[in-house]
Amino acid sequence: MILTGPEITTAAYDGRLRIAPFTADQVNPNSYNVRLGPTLVTYTDKVLDAHRPNPTREITIGPDGHVLQPDELYLGHTLEEVGSDTFVPLLFGRSSVGRLGLFVEITAPIGDIGFHGQWTLMLTPTRPLRVYAGMKIGQIMFFVSTGPIDLYRGKYQAASGPQPSAYWRDVTKLRAVAS
């Protein structure tokens, strides 16, 4: 089951959801709008390596916005910290942003129960597009879970700002176990 807008509001006020800052006018019929934070990160190497940290460059979105370029991956973040120890969150791009040719999530829309923090957005435009800090970029829906809950304790917990891939940490752990 998916939470309706009124239930999202109730859950935000009674603590079953944490949305900070919470603004009632960002509640939709069955989702909550999230806004783009002021920081973007891009990778600087032409070839990325899943087995090591990849160098990045940070961009601050100024008052005149920032133009995203095609064939470039931008890691952005939600302005809001969103999480729940009760519900399963899923993040999707807003249709109005998709109609501008911007992919907001590439392959990872599902959040884990117990994650609390700013969400990293994987932004890829189909053509040059100017974006602005604070613009409504995505929407998070919340689903009721069934069964015992094992809270998220992973490497991105309490994220603040865009988080580059930490996949290499998993590889390092696997190598240590194999040794």
From TrEMBL:
Its EC number is 3.5.4.13. It comes from the Bacteria. The keyword Hydrolase applies. The keyword Acetylation does not apply. One of its GO terms (molecular function) is dCTP deaminase activity. It is an enzyme of class 3 (hydrolase). Keywords: Hydrolase, Nucleotide metabolism. This is dCTP deaminase.
